[in-house]
Specification:
Elements: E1 5-7, H1 8-15, H2 19-27, E2 35-36, E3 43-46, H3 48-61, H4 66-69, H5 82-123, E4 125-130, E5 133-139, H6 147-162, E6 168-178, E7 181-190, E8 201-204, E9 207-215, H7 219-230, E10 234-239, E11 251-257
């Protein structure tokens, strides 16, 4: 029997796991020796336990509390409900991958916005034909980048999470002008729509927009100038991400529709 057993050092070498970690796994009851030499109290492990150690490491690397593993072992620690444990671990890893992908998408978005800001700086203003797009909008009469603004965004993001993974591109304030009245909203551009229609989702048609940067301090004055000079149907204000980002006085991007 002994020729098929491993010392704790051998188990550590084969599984590429520090002996101290293996001793810890043993102390909490998730890695039990299959044989203890009565003469010297040396602990021995089976070759099959190499797989168990690999699974334990996989779980720890994905933030699974080790105590959770005990429910997949029998009372004696001799058998493990491997299918159930692997299903559980797979779900955790998939969730972690989805979270990492969401973070990567955000990084890519910031990079795109930096490039977009550079274009505005180089040309001072841009004139784009913006394609038809869908936005999630909710009434909001506060200031952009305020505590109230970010609190509202968190509430909206919770609602969106309940509807499924809905990638968001641009976030900001939308001012809509109809019949001489101005209606302010907080808005999020949706890259994907939920399965069912939702009253908070609106469609903005394709339109030619003027795009420029404005300082946070000058925003209210610039909006007033645009309203007087251009009488737009909508104004969109969003945060910018620049190569050298001013943390004390960030630039904002302002868009408004132009007459043909």
């Amino acid at each position: 029997m002994k020729e098929y057993l491993l010392t704790i050092s051998q188990l550590g070498k084969i599984s590429q796991t520090h002996v101290k970690a293996l001793r810890y796994y043993q102390s909490i009851g998730i890695l039990k020796p299959v044989y203890v030499n009565p003469d010297n109290n040396y602990h021995y492990y089976s070759l099959a336990q190499v797989t168990l150690v690999q699974i334990i490491k996989l779980c720890t690397e994905n933030d699974v509390p080790l105590k959770d593993l005990k429910r997949y072992l029998d009372e004696n620690g001799e058998t493990i409900a491997l299918k159930d444990l692997i299903d559980y671990a797979k779900n955790l890893v998939e969730n972690k991958i989805a979270k990492a992908q969401k973070q990567l998408d955000y990084i890519n978005y910031i990079q795109e916005e930096i490039q977009h800001s550079q274009e505005i700086h180089q040309q001072h203003t841009l004139h784009y034909v913006l394609n038809e797009a869908r936005y999630w909008v909710e009434p909001f009469d506060g200031k952009i980048l305020s505590e109230e603004y970010f609190t509202k965004l968190l509430t909206i993001e919770e609602q969106l999470n309940e509807l499924g993974p809905l990638p968001i591109k641009r976030i900001g304030l939308l001012l809509r002008y109809e019949y001489g009245q101005k209606a302010p909203f907080i808005c999020l551009k949706l890259e994907k729509l939920p399965p069912e229609p939702h009253p908070q989702i609106i469609t903005l048609p394709e339109q030619r927009n003027h795009i420029e940067h404005v300082s946070y301090e000058d925003l209210a004055q610039r909006i007033s100038q645009i309203e007087t000079q251009f009488q737009p149907q909508s104004i969109f204000i969003t945060e910018t991400f620049e190569d050298d980002y001013d943390l004390f006085s960030p630039h904002l991007e302002i868009q408004f529709d132009e007459a043909e």
